[in-house]
Amino acid sequence: RTILILNGPNLNLLGTREPEIYGAATLDDVEAECTALAGDLGLAVDFRQTNHEGDLVTWIQKARGTAAGIVINPAAYTHTSVAILDALSTYEGPVVEVHISNIHRREAFRHHSFVSSRADGVIAGCGTHGYLLALRQVAHLLG
Ligand code: DQA
């Protein structure tokens, strides 16, 4: 079983992007940690990043019937994208939303997430460790 781990805009710069907020780990580091944990859990991961909203929509559509679960950090699209919410609403498996930072402790425009109304769980403010927590939660939901 494969878990799709999706990352939105600017997360390709993780490690160099505002490290005081997002930490020192790169997205490659996060992918390596997720791949290792998934192995322990008997799962595979398909780990992706894009700066384009439509890529996320298309990847979520293609996850129907192929991915056992989705972990998603929609980044800035969290706060703007009805299209990503609608795509996730067509998906039948478990969805866990991740934010590296605690979006509720930041600017008011980051407090609302369109994605959360479809997410089975939301993890925020745990740094990049949140991806591992999300992966464990998806495994737990899959039983
Ligand atoms: C983020 C929080 C968003 O508000 C921001 O736009 C991001 C990253 C996070 O992981 O903390 O790009 O999703």
From TrEMBL:
Annotated positions for site Transition state stabilizer: 17
The keyword Nucleotide-binding is annotated on this UniProt entry: no
Pathway as given in its UniProt record: Metabolic intermediate biosynthesis; chorismate biosynthesis; chorismate from D-erythrose 4-phosphate and phosphoenolpyruvate: step 3/7
Electron transport in keyword set: no
Single GO MF annotation: 3-dehydroquinate dehydratase activity
Reaction catalysed by this enzyme: 3-dehydroquinate = 3-dehydroshikimate + H2O
InterPro entries in the record: DHquinase_II, DHquinase_II_CS, DHquinase_II_sf
EC numbers on record: 4.2.1.10
Pfam families according to UniProt: DHquinase_II
Keywords: Amino-acid biosynthesis, Aromatic amino acid biosynthesis, Lyase
Domain of life per record: Bacteria
Active site: 22, 99
Group of enzyme by EC: lyase
Amino acids binding substrate: 73, 79, 86, 100-101, 110
Subunit-level organization: Homododecamer.
NCBIfam families: aroQ, PRK05395.1-2, PRK05395.1-3, PRK05395.1-4
Family: Belongs to the type-II 3-dehydroquinase family.
Function: Catalyzes a trans-dehydration via an enolate intermediate.
The protein, known as: 3-dehydroquinate dehydratase
Species of origin: Lacimonas salitolerans
